[in-house]
Design brief:
Belongs to the UPF0335 family. This is UPF0335 protein bsl7135. The structure is a single chain. This protein is mostly helical and 90 residues long. It has two domains: 53 residues; 36 residues. It is built from three helices and no strands.
Length: 90
């Protein structure tokens, strides 16, 4: 009988844990949907820019570069330039 009493004592905690888990899963699912919608919007903007004659690859590169820290970007550009000079590309 002690076992059944212990199970009854755990039921509210178990229900809380189940509700909390369900809430977490639903939040993740909602965020995944939002992420997909944003991804679709970004793809549409790139398609629009391509339709207007812009080079999408260059745009993606610029977006990636703008995300970088200016010092890190400068360092990467210096290294790239050094390598290109060593290969006689510039």
């Amino acid at each position: 009988m002690a076992t059944s009493a212990a199970v009854r004592d755990d039921e509210p905690a178990t229900k809380f844990a189940k509700d909390q888990l369900k809430s977490i899963i639903e939040r993740i699912e909602r965020l995944e949907e939002e992420k997909k919608a944003i991804s679709d919007d970004i793809r549409d903007v790139y398609a629009e820019s391509k339709g207007n004659g812009y080079d999408v690859k260059a745009l993606r590169t610029i977006v990636r570069m703008r995300k970088q820290d200016p010092n890190e970007r400068a360092e990467a550009e210096t290294i790239l330039e050094t390598y290109m000079q060593a290969l006689g590309m510039i």
